[in-house]
Design a protein that fits this description.
This protein has two domains: 40 residues, no CATH class; 97 residues, no CATH class. Helices cover 38% and strands 20% of the residues.
Length: 143
């Protein structure tokens, strides 16, 4: 396998440039690793991973909002912006101003912005795919 690593690297690089070109022309991403977080933020070596997610509460149901691309944002940008402001809100860094900015961000891509909550999710990447895998959710604030 090690002897093929350099070939795989160049194939991956080539396909990434092809994806960049196609997306620049208005097409869809053809190579899934082009913008995949595996290379930019790997979490396999971490014992605990944390991310901030938005949830909607309907009655007694807590529904995790998925990141669906819009004209303004792709899925990765939605996750990065949510995590950026979520971490600032969680750490009480200019909390009121960052909540206001998060609300503005939510209004820019969600049709309904009522009953939205910010949660911090914690999990162990080493447990992915195992029956013992659990995500711990902590409510940070209502937005």
């Amino acid at each position: 396998m090690q002897k093929y690593t350099k070939y795989l690297f160049f194939i991956s690089l080539f396909l990434s440039f092809v994806s960049l070109y196609v997306m620049g022309k208005g097409g869809k991403e053809i190579y899934p690793f082009f913008s995949w977080k595996l290379f930019t933020s790997p979490s396999g070596n971490e014992k605990l991973a944390e991310q901030y997610r938005l949830y909607r509460i309907n009655g007694n149901d807590t529904i995790r909002l998925s990141y669906n691309a819009t004209e303004l944002y792709d899925e990765n940008n939605l996750g990065l912006i949510t995590s950026f402001y979520g971490r600032k809100i969680d750490n009480n860094e200019d909390r009121k101003d960052n909540i206001r900015k998060m609300k503005t961000f939510i209004k820019s891509y969600l049709l309904e912005d009522e009953n939205i909550f910010l949660y911090k999710e914690s999990f162990s990447p080493w447990e992915l795919g195992k029956p013992s895998f659990k995500i711990k959710k902590i409510q940070i604030t209502k937005l």
